[in-house]
Design a protein that fits this description.
This protein is α+β, with helices and mostly antiparallel strands. It has a single domain, classed as 2-Layer Sandwich (Creatine Kinase, Chain A, domain 2), CATH 3.30.590. Helices cover 33% and strands 18% of the residues. The protein contains 13 helices and 14 strands. It has helices spanning 2-5, 10-16, 42-45, 118-131, 176-181, 183-196, 221-240, 286-306, 360-376, 400-408, 411-417, 419-436, 442-448, and strands at 23-29, 35-41, 51-54, 79-84, 90-91, 99-107, 134-148, 200-205, 211-216, 244-247, 263-269, 328-330, 337-339, 349-351. A hairpin with a 5-residue loop joins strand 1 (23-29) and strand 2. The termini are far apart. It comes from Ruegeria intermedia.
Length: 452
């Protein structure tokens, strides 16, 4: 055991210290962000340096169907080689025994990264930055709802019962009393996060009924995406302990705000160690404006990745705390691109477009890719917006099919993310969209059945 446990992060070593490790969960994110993999006895894990999974895990839709995303030479289901990244090893503290989780990276038989593995897509984009002498830094914000258990999909989702015995109240943003309503769940979230070695920057009540936000400390994009990937599972497990569900749907409850994954961006010049967005006198640099321009120009095509489901587009509604356009402004939460108040060293750009339902690796990768294109092409943004951006027209797709059309035409974005990823992603998402179009909704039955 010592040969591999010595490579573990301190939190993982502390977790198993004095205990017999029972099991290791060898996991990888698929396109939706679901953890796929194998659970193996710790003794077996100690003897293996890799394991195999078929590449078809990346061809599955969210419903479990396959679409036609297999390789151009047919549905062969080739085995991938999955190798552990020991820096990601962390506890699974909700299990009944002593279990660790380890994220793996996917390679083909020649040792090349599988191009449509989400973690590999993000690594590819980050490397493009590093090749330019830049180190991208991100800080994600995670919004989610705690809701009553819902075992019948035909029924609407309802807020959970709080500690007081009353349903969670809406429109109580930043209320500490509202946060206290979920105290037992939040306590477990903190305990699980501490056992896993994750640092929470803060938890707040958001505007929706039972809606919370967790902020993470800024850092390396891959590390932060790993944490969001882990946090989604952690939060779900904490909720289940208290007879409720945690959901990361973009719009789970009608007439309530949706859930976003806001992404804060800054870039470090590796030669100087300084923020690329701030000049010697503390002013905003050309790179700062170039990055914003890249978001404005390319996010409409990237939206298909940041808003990956039909439900995602229900979030972009006026006056419901979600943007409807890609205007940019300083300290203005009505715009899709916001520049928060900060000093020169911490100057950053916030992308408010991404939904919490997106795969964190892919959402961060696309956001960085759009900014990268603006940087390398020296693009210039539109003028800063002043006022209420909800009073203007929307300039992002409102329908998933339109977003996919824009994504398919975005050759420059494909080259940054990887053409093979773009091909597979588009086929999987179109299969999901076409399946959704076969479903007749209650609204259609209620209003069309006897009236048209």
């Amino acid at each position: 055991m010592a040969d591999w446990t010595d490579q573990l992060p301190q939190a993982a070593r502390d977790y198993i210290d004095g205990h017999r490790l029972d099991e290791v969960e060898c996991i990888i994110s698929d396109l939706p962000g679901i953890a796929r993999g194998k659970a193996v006895p710790a003794s077996k894990f100690a003897r293996q340096s890799y394991f195999h999974l078929p590449d078809s895990i990346f061809y599955q839709t969210i419903t479990g169907d396959w679409g036609e995303a297999a390789g151009e030479d047919g549905f062969i289901e080739r085995d991938m080689i999955l190798r552990p990244d020991f820096t990601t090893a962390t506890a699974a503290p909700w299990t009944g025994d002593w279990t660790l989780q380890v994220i793996h990276d996917a390679y083909d038989r020649d040792g090349d990264p599988i191009p449509f593995s989400p973690r590999n897509v993000l690594k590819r984009v980050v490397q493009l930055y590093r090749d330019k002498g830049w180190e991208p830094i991100v800080a994600p914000e995670m919004e989610f709802f705690l809701v009553a258990r819902n075992v019948d999909p035909a029924k609407g989702i309802e807020p959970m019962m709080g500690r007081s015995g009353r349903p969670a109240a809406a429109r109580q943003a930043y209320s500490m009393t509202a946060v206290d309503e979920f105290g037992p769940v939040i306590d477990d979230i903190y305990d699980f996060a501490e056992a896993q070695g994750f640092e929470i920057d803060g938890i707040t009540q958001e505007g929706g009924a039972g809606q919370l936000e967790i902020n993470l400390r800024h850092g390396d994009p891959v590390k932060l995406a790993d944490e969001v990937f882990y946090f989604k599972r952690l939060i779900r497990e904490a909720a289940l302990r208290h007879n409720c569900f945690a959901t990361f749907m973009a719009k789970p409850i009608e007439d309530e705000p949706g859930s976003a994954m806001h992404i804060h961006h800054s870039i470090i010049d590796t030669e100087t160690g300084k923020n690329l967005f701030s000049g010697p006198q503390g002013g905003e640099t050309d790179a700062f404006y170039n990055f914003i321009a890249g978001l404005q120009l390319h996010l409409p095509a990237g939206l298909a990745v940041m808003a990956p489901y039909v439900n995602s587009y229900r979030r972009y509604v006026k006056d419901h705390a979600a943007p409807i356009n890609l205007e940019w402004a300083r300290d203005n939460r009505t715009t899709g691109i916001r520049v928060p108040l900060s000093g020169p060293d911490s100057r950053r750009v916030e992308n408010r477009i991404a939904g919490m339902d997106c795969n964190p690796y892919l959402g961060i990768a696309v956001s960085l890719a759009c900014g990268y294109l603006g940087l390398v092409n020296h693009d210039r943004p539109r003028r800063q917006f002043y006022g209420d951006a909800y009073e203007g027209d929307g300039d992002i797709p409102q329908v998933m099919g339109n977003a996919l059309d824009l994504f398919d035409e975005a050759d420059a974005l494909h080259q940054v993310l990887g053409p093979e990823f773009a091909r597979v992603y588009s086929i999987v998402k179109r299969a999901e969209y076409e399946e959704f179009l076969q479903v007749i909704s209650p609204w259609e039955r209620e209003h069309l059945l006897l009236n048209v």
